Each structure stands twice: as C-alpha cells, then as structure tokens.
C-alpha cells in the first residue's frame, strides 16, 4: 500500500489553501473594521470625548463626575395600559441611580459644565431591569451619531472656523446652542428636570406599540441662577448640596411619558415634539439616600439605555445603540483601569454589596 | 448483536464520523464562524445593528455551548476514526492538540462571555426576551479580566479555525488520506471510495507499524 503519489496539482492545491486562508483573514479584518479607517467606531467616539490631555483612567469617558443614590420608583399604574413592562404596574421598585455632570473630567468645577445627567437602574421582581441615562437639555445637539462625532471633532479642533462650518452643515444645532447659552442653571440637582430625548417604543399586552419619550420632572422648584452666580456656589456644590438636602428628606421626580403621534420625529432627538402631545404620569422616583461614588452602588453600573425590560424597546432612533456601543467600551476600559480609581475601603474591586 | 457485545476497546474504529457527528460539526462550523464575525463586527460599530448583533451573539454563544457539550458526549459514545498510520508524529500531535484547543474554546468562550456579562452586572438577555441568570456576582475587576480574555481568545479561536481549515484541505487535496472525507458533509463518488482505502490502508499500516 504505497502512498498515493503527490498529485501534479500540489502547488495549485497549496495556492488554493493559502488563498482560502488569506481570503478568510481579509473578510474577518474587513468585518472588524481594520480595513475601514472611516468607520465610526466606539473607540473614535471615546477619543472624540476625551479631554485634550487624554482620557482620565478609571473613570467614565463622559459624565465622569457624579454621585450615587438609592431610592424607589413607585409606579402609579397609569402607564400599565401602554406597556406590559412590570415597571409600569402599580408598585414600588428599587432604584440605584447617579446624578452627574456632562464632562469627561471628574475634577471639573460644577460651574464649568453645562449639561447635567441622571442615570437610573430600576429593578422589578421579575429580575428585569430598566436602565436609562438622561440629561437636562430639552433637545439633543445633533440628529445622528455621525453628526455627534462631527461636533466633538469641531469642538476639539484648533481651526477657529471649525465650529462655524460645523454649524453651517447642521441646522439642528442652534436649538441646543440656544438652550446652552441662555437657560438658567438650577441651583440643585433636586430642581433639575431630566429628559430621555431618545424615543422608545412601549408595547402593551395586545402587542400594540406606542412611541414615547420621557422626562423626570422635579418636585422641588428649580431655583434658577445665572452661570456666574451658580459658579460662585463652589466647584462641588451640586454633590454637597444634594447630599445635605436628601439627608433632610427624600427628593421626588415624576416620570412623565410623552406619547408620539403619527409623523412625530422619533428618529431624531434634536427635534422636539409638539407641546400638546398627550402625557402620562407613570410614577414617582424618590431619592432616599446619597452615597459618594467611590464606594457607592452606582460606580460599576453601566447606565446603558438599551437595557430594557420586555414592554419597552428601541425605536428607529439611532442614538441608544450608538450610546450602548460607546458606553460598553467605556465600561470595559474603566473596569480595566480599576486600580486608577480604587474603592476607598478595601480597594480590591470586591463585589458590591 | 455480536457487535454490541464486543469489547469496545477491541472494536474497529469507525472509518467515518457518524451522520450525527458530521451534522454537528458542520452546524457548529457555521455557528462558530458566524459568531466570530458577529463578535468582531459588533464591537467595531456604533450603528443600530449593534444591539441586535449583540443579542444574536449571546444567543448563538449559548447555542454553541449546548451543541459543544452534546458533541463531546456523542464523541465519547461513538468514538472517532483513526488518523492515518503514516501521518508524521508531529502532525498527529498537532492534530490532537488543536482538537483539544478547539473543544476547549467552543466550551470556554461562551462561558467566559456569560461570566463577563454577569460580572458587569448586566442582565444576560438573549433573543426572544429570554434572560439567563448571572453565573458570577458583579465585580468590575473580574469583568475587565474576562473581557480581555474573551477578546484575546476570539482571535486565537479564529486563527485555530483557519489552521483547522487549512489542515482539512491539506488532507483532502494533497495527502488524500481519507481524513477530510471522514468529516465531509456529504458522500461523493470519490469520498465513498476514500474511507475504504483509508481503512484498509490503516489496517495494513498498523501492522507495518507494529512489525
């Protein structure tokens, strides 16, 4: 049984095998974006967000300055007919949240930051979670994730005309810029309203879908201040103030769902919906206890807006997916850098209680 | 009847993988390759496809884990065709080791991924709204280690699959020793001959070997 002679086509076969392997590597590289420098990747978005000196290791890549809280979401039941999500069925559900400032620098002075944020994680007894990350602006600056990256590049550019040409190409931007330039600064997180801006779909028990946006509206009055007066309150005023305030008594926000009507722009968070849209008060958030971030329960939570319970889902708004991809990258990086942001007690990255 | 009563260790090893083994192999080949492409693609994009790709990736990962365990059980019960006796020893060792690594990755990658999502404190959401329980408590440092392992092993897995593919084609196109045919998805005229040749060749070579 002599072995079959090596066929004449051996060289051809070897070339074929090499070609199949090389083709596979090329397809894999293309899929991974290694051959597409133009693709908008999570890394690019994070690089665009980073301060000029580079990202601050151990911290969120944006909304880096924040403080944790725990509390309760009490669903009124008023939205139960719109969504089968347990979180809308009348009842009390535990919340872990985070008040924050829209800056990549955890040391930034409060008065230097225009945008405030609220991250929420509501857990229901069916083990489902609803995570949301909202801001106080009434509209988002731009219509698409690509445009957001363009804005980051223009804002970070040394070219003095970069912002001018960005604005020329993005007619939606002035609405946000107008708010940023003229809106007063509420003196406290407690008097600040937070908006989803992104649109989501609610699904009821019969499978009917309704596009919504939502806001958490404060019970406390806004106490509006000028930028200069607010900056005079101190660099860490907001965290200090909310800590004192909540120690004296819980603070409340009402969850207001705004229901879209046909034709309302669900895919574009830079465009507000008409004021007369039907609104539903779905429940009340009560902030019961403030905890500093280093040992707080919110530190290692990624407030990913695509983590939704059954009954709430993504709409055609492209932002939640883009945010999810970028947040995941930020979370992977900052947990890898946990030594740069150790917990105060223990500092072992031990499981949170 | 006598076959089933015969001592397994003395039973002749099958010339080809069984139909079930071949089906599992090719089903998993498609699933694992899709998995690697989805994985490398989804982490490179911020497009709306990111979310469904991630959910599909998790779901497919669990399916691969289940199939890999099933496949190992079938392998333990049915056995494998012998490698050609004249296969050089380094190639035999490479074949054995690469298969250990392939099975290890098919089982470990889904578990590392599941553990990674668990340790991030994120719900393990699959297609159809199915939610699996966490297999680790939330822990940032653990998450970071698992994430790095998952990413690095994915590239190793892809490299190993290319090696496996190249070796399979080498057997099929150059050595023509029946190894490729033993796992080929369908029988062809040539393939029907090949295992027979391989089997008889194996037997005679085995006696050569022991001589």
Automatic annotation (TrEMBL), chain A:
Cofactor(s) it depends on: heme
Record EC number: 1.11.1.-
Domain Catalase core: 15-350
Domain of life: Bacteria
UniProt entry keywords in alphabetical sequence: Heme, Iron, Metal-binding, Oxidoreductase, Peroxidase
SUPFAM superfamilies (alphabetical): Heme-dependent catalase-like
Pfam families the UniProt entry points to: Catalase
Keyword Iron-sulfur: no
UniProt keyword Heme present: yes
InterPro entries: Catalase, Catalase_core, Catalase_sf, Catalase_SrpA-type_pred
An example Gene Ontology molecular-function term: peroxidase activity
Family recorded in the similarity comment: Belongs to the catalase family.
Function comment: Has an organic peroxide-dependent peroxidase activity.
Stated name of the protein: Catalase-related peroxidase
Organism lineage: Bacteria, Pseudomonadati, Pseudomonadota, Alphaproteobacteria, Hyphomicrobiales
TrEMBL record, chain B:
Location(s), subcellular: Cell membrane
Segments passing through the bilayer: 26-47, 59-77, 97-117, 152-174
SUPFAM superfamilies with a match to the protein in the record: Transmembrane di-heme cytochromes
Database matches in PANTHER family: BLL0291 PROTEIN, CYTOCHROME B561
The family this protein is said to belong to: Belongs to the cytochrome b561 family.
Region (Disordered): 187-211
Membrane topology annotation: Multi-pass membrane protein
Residue stretches in coiled coil: none
UniProt keyword annotations, A-Z: Cell membrane, Electron transport, Heme, Iron, Membrane, Metal-binding, Transmembrane, Transmembrane helix, Transport
All residue ranges annotated as the Cytochrome b561 bacterial/Ni-hydrogenase domain in the record: 16-184
Lineage: Bacteria, Pseudomonadati, Pseudomonadota, Alphaproteobacteria, Hyphomicrobiales
Lineage: superkingdom: Bacteria
Swiss-Prot/TrEMBL cofactor(s): heme b
Chief localization: membrane
Protein name as it appears in the record: Cytochrome b
């Amino acid at each position: 049984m002599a072995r079959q002679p090596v066929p004449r086509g051996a060289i051809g076969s070897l070339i074929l095998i090499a070609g199949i392997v090389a083709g596979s590597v090329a397809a894999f590289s293309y899929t991974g974006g290694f051959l597409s420098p133009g693709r908008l990747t999570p890394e690019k978005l994070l690089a665009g967000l980073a301060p000029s000196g580079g990202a601050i290791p151990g911290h969120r890549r944006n909304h880096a300055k924040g403080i944790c809280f725990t509390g309760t979401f009490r669903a009124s039941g008023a939205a139960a007919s719109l969504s089968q999500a347990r979180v809308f069925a009348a009842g009390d559900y535990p919340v872990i949240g985070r008040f924050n400032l829209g800056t990549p620098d955890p040391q930034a002075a409060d008065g230097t930051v225009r945008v405030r944020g609220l991250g929420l994680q509501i857990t229901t007894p069916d083990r489902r979670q609803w995570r949301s990350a909202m801001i106080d602006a009434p509209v988002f600056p731009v219509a698409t994730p690509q445009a957001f990256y363009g804005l980051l590049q223009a804002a970070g550019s040394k070219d003095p005309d970069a912002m001018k040409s960005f604005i020329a190409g993005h007619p939606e931007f002035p609405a946000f810029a107008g708010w940023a330039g003229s809106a007063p600064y509420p003196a406290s997180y407690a008097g600040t309203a937070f908006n989803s801006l992104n649109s989501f779909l609610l699904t009821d028990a019969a499978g009917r879908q309704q596009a919504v946006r939502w806001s958490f509206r404060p019970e406390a009055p806004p106490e509006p201040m000028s930028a200069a007066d607010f900056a005079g309150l101190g660099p860490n005023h907001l965290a200090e103030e909310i800590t004192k305030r909540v120690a004296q008594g819980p603070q409340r926000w009402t969850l207001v769902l705004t229901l879209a009507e046909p034709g309302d722009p669900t895919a574009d968070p830079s465009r507000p919906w008409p004021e007369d849209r039907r609104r539903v008060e779905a429940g009340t958030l009560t902030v019961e206890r403030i905890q500093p971030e280093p040992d707080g329960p919110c530190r290692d939570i990624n407030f990913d807006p695509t983590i939704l319970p059954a009954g709430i889902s993504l709409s055609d708004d492209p932002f939640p997916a883009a945010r999810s991809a970028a947040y995941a990258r930020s979370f992977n990086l900052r947990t890898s850098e946990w030594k740069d942001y150790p917990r105060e007690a223990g500092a072992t990255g031990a499981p949170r209680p | 009847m006598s076959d089933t009563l015969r001592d397994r260790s003395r039973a002749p090893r099958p010339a080809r993988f069984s139909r079930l083994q071949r089906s599992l192999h090719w089903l998993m080949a498609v699933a694992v390759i899709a998995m690697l492409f989805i994985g490398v693609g989804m982490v490179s994009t911020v497009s709306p496809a990111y979310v469904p790709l991630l959910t599909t990736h998790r779901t497919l990962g669990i399916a691969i884990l289940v199939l890999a365990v099933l496949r190992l059980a079938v392998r333990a019960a049915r056995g494998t065709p012998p490698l050609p006796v004249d296969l050089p020893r380094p190639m035999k060792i490479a074949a054995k080791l690469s298969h250990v690594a392939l099975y290890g990755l098919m089982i470990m990658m889904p578990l590392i991924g599941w553990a990674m999502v668990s340790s991030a404190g994120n719900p393990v959401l699959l297609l159809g709204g199915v939610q699996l329980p966490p297999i680790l408590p939330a822990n940032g440092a653990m998450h970071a280690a698992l994430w790095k392992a998952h990413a690095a092993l994915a590239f190793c897995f892809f490299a190993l699959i290319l090696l496996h593919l190249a070796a399979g084609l080498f057997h099929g196109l150059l050595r023509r020793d029946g190894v490729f045919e033993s796992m080929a998805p369908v029988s062809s005229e040539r393939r029907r001959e090949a295992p027979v040749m391989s089997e008889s060749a194996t037997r005679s070579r085995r006696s050569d070997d022991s001589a």
